[in-house]
Write a structure and sequence with these properties.
Layout (H helix, E strand, L loop, with lengths): L65 E3 L5 E3 L1 E2 L10 H10 L12 H20 L7 E5 L2 H9 L6 E4 L4 H5 L6 E4 L5 H14 L4 E5 L7 E2 L2 H10 L3 E5 L11 H4 L3 E5 L10 E5 L1 H6 L10 E7 L2 E6 L13 H14 L6 H18 L4 E3 L8 E2 L2 E6 L4 H12 L1 E2 L1 E3 L4 H8 L4 E5 L6 H17 L5 E4 L2 E4 L25
Parallel strand pairs: 3-17, 5-6, 5-7, 7-9, 9-10
Antiparallel strand pairs: 1-2, 4-11, 8-15, 10-11, 12-13, 14-16, 16-19, 18-19, 20-21
């Protein structure tokens, strides 16, 4: 493909000790409005109204990171790729650093540090459960990420599963070795709900897997209604909350959802852990996800065969040494997000998303992608294509010339991109706690310039990825001898 050009446009630390138990952690507080009724006929003394300062958004590590551009300038990084992986919350990084000196074995260690780590791990389960509104008898299993959690659950489902074609590959593929069917989602939410009702009524289904928020468009289905439809048919529901939990309150008990899966690296806790939260009965009798130490009550040998008595969940599915730091990080993220996840963070992100959508819609050649025009809500994720400019080139130019990080590809949602973009790649912008108006406006201005005139620098494709030619940026700032390149197999290419 020939080279093209454009004009450049843009230039809390946890309060508990590391060994705190769940009982010592602050619980979620509700705001209550109290009205006082006057009982005197005298004119009351006027008392000035005290205005409560708004709750600040939690700080992220790396905000303002200086990044080089191909023209030699250095600018603050505008990270608009949080749907892929989010930076760590400062409170999360501080908590992990606080815990590191105590790091030791868990569950069977008699040493003080082991007891501290065991307390932190088990307390983290309670924190995560409380954050997502789990029922009293629900179980929290720590996993590597959402994909891992879904694959774990797939081995516990005693029957058929169902999902829509709008799902991330993790949900589309986790059940591939089971009785699994996929339905094409209609063009409206109402029609989609009717399709699910008819499908679940027509054929017995053990589990319905549904996204909490689309990782391509950010659109949210009415989970409460879906759970009611599924439960009326005797079907359980697993909610993929990877994209939802960082932006909206997930409440298991209130919604009626049976299982929730999420990833720490999308919840501002990128330390290699995720979680499966939900009903215990299937998990207590399922074949252990991994066979090994920690998952058993006892092991013996008889007739040259190992005989095992397996532990119940969660330990049944957590064989091997657990990721204590990852679990602690997710718990710290839950504590930091809890005060802002209901109102402050959604309001911040809705205002920025509206500004982003309005800006992109005014650019000739830019086509936003949507699944349902009547979706009741949407997290701060937006995908689009640019006429006559490959998505990979748009993303590379945004980074190299403007210091803006976005995603390009098919976002591990190939069936959905086949519907929305004819199988072509798209550009995805995802916002979060540290996104600013300046970030959004800079992105819109840069996309407008690229859509109008093409990139300013020269680019060429190398192994399917666009790269500046030449690229004078230092791509090994940590001096590890790293060589930048296209990397391994990409989900979008």
């Amino acid at each position: 493909m020939s080279d093209v050009r454009t004009q450049a446009v843009r230039g809390p630390l946890c309060t508990e000790a590391p060994g705190c138990t769940a009982a010592e952690e602050p619980t979620r507080t509700a705001t209550t409005t109290i009205r006082a009724t006057a009982t005197s006929t005298t004119t009351p003394t006027t008392t000035p109204t005290r205005t409560q300062a708004p709750t600040p958004l939690p700080e992220l590590v790396g905000t303002g990171l200086p990044v080089p551009l191909v023209d030699g300038r250095t600018v603050p990084y505008a990270n608009l790729d949080l749907a892929a992986s989010a930076p760590a919350l400062r409170a999360v990084a501080d908590h992990v650093a606080e815990l590191l000196p105590y790091y030791s074995s868990v569950h069977r260690g008699a040493g003080y540090a082991s007891q501290v780590c065991t307390s932190v791990l088990e307390g983290a389960r309670e924190t995560v459960a409380r954050f997502v509104g789990a029922r009293a008898d629900d179980v929290v299993v720590f996993t590597r990420n959402t994909t891992d959690a879904l694959n774990l659950l797939a081995g516990a489902v005693p029957g058929a599963t169902l999902c829509l074609d709008v799902e991330h590959h993790a949900t589309l593929l986790a059940w591939r070795d089971t009785d699994h069917r996929v339905l094409r989602a209609p063009d409206t939410v109402d029609e989609t709900l009717e399709l699910l009702r008819d499908a679940l009524t027509a054929e017995p289904t053990a589990l319905l897997a549904v996204t909490g928020a689309s990782n391509v468009t950010g659109e949210i289905l009415p989970i409460d209604e879906i759970c009611a439809i599924a439960h009326a048919a005797g079907t359980r529901v697993v909610l993929d909350a990877a994209q939802l939990a960082p932006h909206r309150r997930v409440d298991i008990a209130a919604s009626g959802v049976d299982y929730v899966v999420l990833s720490g690296h999308k919840l501002y806790a990128p330390y290699g852990a995720g979680a499966l939260i939900g009903r215990r009965d299937w998990l207590d009798v399922a074949t252990p996800y991994l066979a090994g130490g920690g998952a058993v009550r006892s092991v013996g040998v008889a007739d040259r065969t190992a005989e095992v008595s397996w532990a119940p969940a969660p330990h049944r599915h957590e064989a091997g040494t657990p990721n204590v730091l990852g679990a602690a990080a997710i718990a710290a993220a839950c504590r930091a997000l809890d005060p802002v996840i209901d109102e402050v963070a959604p309001a911040h992100e809705r205002a920025l998303l509206a500004r982003l959508v309005d800006g992109l819609s005014g650019i000739t050649g830019v086509r936003p992608l949507r699944i349902w025009a009547d979706a009741p809500d949407r997290v701060a994720v937006a995908s689009f294509t640019v006429a006559d400019v490959p998505a990979g080139l748009v993303a590379t130019a945004l980074s190299a010339e403007h210091g803006i990080g976005v995603r390009d590809g098919r976002f591990c949602a190939h069936p959905l991109l086949a519907r929305l973009a004819g199988g072509a790649d798209a550009v995805r912008v995802s916002l979060g706690l540290n996104t600013t108006v300046e970030d959004v406006d800079g992105l819109v201005a840069a996309v407008r310039a690229i859509a109008t005139s093409g990139p300013e620098w020269d680019y060429r494709e190398v192994d399917g990825r666009w790269t500046p030619t030449p690229d004078p940026r230092d791509l090994d700032p940590l001096r590890l001898g790293a060589v930048a390149g296209p990397g391994g197999a990409a989900c979008g290419h």
